[in-house]
């Protein structure tokens, strides 16, 4: 339930969350997240949308109806502030932005992902290589099949009009949003803080009921979990704000949820280290360790997850193991192309 609507947070509508701000949930068919929240922000400078949704017919039609219910049309949108490059946030913003001339902004850290998409023919499908390096050969074989790697429509993945670089203020009439770089979920992730209104448009950085995936980007990152936890600490050092997440209900305190997320990842780090300590001297791959950890709040086994979520789980485990190496608690080596981890000492 979301307090702004009194309904389940995925219920369609344009729900008022603050003066001049409406939350619009858009559908994500065939996605366990079910919906993504797009936020419509009114100002003297026109309408700004934080995130845009996934460029599918159902989402586009619902966004159009939801905006109409509060007196707006696509032509009234002046800009999109996109928190990160994932399809459920970026693609509909890009398509509508091109149609109506609205400026689309995206964090500069996501440029390598778009560069890779546009530099390869056919478009990049190299996640199989990442999974093989994590020891997940069986997942990699399945991931590489055409049915598991649909062709990307690059018309939905053009470059933004503006790259967001560094922490800076964005003026929307009398409203000011602070763009804050928060790498982790993706390297270009940005949150937008409305300190005057006491709001944080958090994208996928801080989610109220789940933790975002870490470590599964087309362009590999050395320490994605370290980046994510550092970004959480950065947001924790800001004044506490009301949480406006991309997935899930509005929540009263960013600080409270950040504390829970940091504690969760420390617990997962400890669980990964226990798996290494109890392993044979030859060590374990990320896939091996993921196989002994529980997943989701229902504590499913890795084998019970679908292909996509098993891949996310494997790469998130690798991110935890790499951070243990950086902390000096584990060591890594490469055996037959796969990264193998052992407990230090």
UniProtKB/TrEMBL annotation:
Domain of life: Bacteria
InterPro entries: Metallo-B-lactamas (IPR001279), Sec-metab_biosynth-thioest (IPR050662)
UniProt cross-references to Pfam families, sorted A to Z: Lactamase_B
Top EC group: hydrolase
Keyword field: Hydrolase
Protein's UniProt keywords contain Ligase: no
Name listed for the protein in its UniProt record: Hydroxyacylglutathione hydrolase GloC
Species of provenance: Nocardioides aquaticus
Top-level taxonomy: Bacteria, Bacillati, Actinomycetota, Actinomycetes, Propionibacteriales
